[in-house]
Amino acid sequence: MKLTADGVSWQAGATLIVQSVSLAVGAGETFGLVGPNGSGKSTLLKMLAGIRAPSSGRILLGDEPIGAISRRRVAQTIALVEQLADTIDRITVRDAVELGRTPWLSALSPWSVRDEEAVADALRAVGMERLATRSWHTLSGGERQRVHIARALAQEPSILILDEPTNHLDIHHQLSILALIARLPVTTIVALHDLNQAMACDRVGIMDGGRLVAVGPPREVLSTERIETTFAVRATICVDPSDGAHLLRFHGTP
Ligand SMILES: Nc1ncnc2c1ncn2[C@@H]1O[C@H](COP(=O)(O)OP(=O)(O)OP(=O)(O)O)[C@@H](O)[C@H]1O
Questions:
Q1: One GO MF term, please (predicted)?
Q2: Is the pLDDT of residue 254 over 70?
Q3: Does 88 have pLDDT greater than 80?
Q4: What's the angle, vertex CA 51, arms to CA 49 and CA 55, rounded to 5?
Q5: Ligand 1 atom nearest to CA at 35
Q6: CATH: 3.40.109.10, 3.30.460.10, 3.40.50.450, 3.40.50.300. Which one for 3-222?
Q7: Could you tell me where in the chain the CATH 3.40.50.300 domains are found?
Q8: CB under 6 Å to ligand 1: residues?
């Protein structure tokens, strides 16, 4: 499903944190959002997910303003994996992932085999099935991150929004989670700090000082000039001889 930001801004007191961002992410697209610390990525993702109301402008889910859609239908459509998400202690990994099914349950559609399968598939997708009975509070940071992603997958959303999902992950799990995200047939918007990981997205948007300053294919948008202007580092582009992929190498302050 398509997700659109139509001139959205968000203000804290007198400070504009996100300024007039317009963006349309198409059905099935994987869109990477990059930008320095404090550039407004998380704030924009929260507005796109419908959990923070814009100070001005609007978010459209398909063609409908998100504010006009019931919370339940928004939750059936969009899953958000936040950056430092925590959850209450004394629940197991499976309990945490089962929470992803909440938007689909009601008196008329109680927990069923279908829900059981969605939870099992999600645990398997992030490689956490063996830890399903473990208590949440005994998990490492990376394991918690994978459980949060599993909870979002169990939700079976049409739009998946992830805020730095590879933050706490070892390199194997970084690559497997990114490959999983790229394979999912859903609209995905993912904030990333690793610009080489962003290179694998269909399109990339760059946030700088609350504005979306560039949008387009990664090789065009992540130019050495743009990286120097926005991130204040010098970059060179190297080509991997094994597959011709472009890799960025960074050289500290320009
Ligand atoms: N409720 C708030 N009140 C005041 N300032 C806020 C509030 N929420 C966010 N900010 C500020 O807005 C700016 C953007 O924050 P945001 O978390 O969106 O940035 P980000 O690009 O996701 O950063 P990071 O890469 O560090 O995660 C930051 O300077 C932050 O301190």
A1: ATP hydrolysis activity
A2: no
A3: no
A4: 100
A5: 21
A6: 3.40.50.300
A7: 3-222
A8: 12, 17, 35, 37-43
Mutate to test the pocket of ligand 1, among 43, 46, 206 (most ligand atoms within 8 A of CB): 43
Residues 6 or more apart whose CB falls under 8 angstroms from that of 153 comprise 79, 100, 121, 122, 125, 126, 160, 184
Q: Say whether pLDDT at 87 is over 80.
A: no
Mean pLDDT for the chain overall: 93
**Model-level pTM?**
0.93
> Tell me: the pLDDT tens digits for 185-237?
899 999 999 999 999 999 999 999 999 999 999 999 999 999 999 999 999 99
